[in-house]
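hiii, so i know i said id send this last week but things got crazy w the move. better late than never?? heres the sequnce for the chain we talked about at the cafe, plus the structure i predicted for it. fair warning i was half asleep when i ran it
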Amino acid sequence: MRLEAFTEGTVVEVLHLGPYTSELPSIQKLDDYISGHSLKAVGRHHEIYLSDPRRTDPAKLRTLLRHPVEKV
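okay and structure toks below
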């Protein structure tokens, strides 16, 4: 684990519901939105975990998937 500070600016985000292993369709929705709205993904996507995987049923996990973007 590491602590890293960064400024992301404008982002596109989607709330993923379910296990981490099933994030791919949510990431695809994020990518489709970016390409369909004259945006360009910049940098790396990151995740914000809203649920504790030690206490939450995997089907009920909530994760924000975020990707910094800029106008094309």
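btw Residues 16 and 26 are 6 Å apart (CA to CA). thought thatd interest u
miss u guys!!
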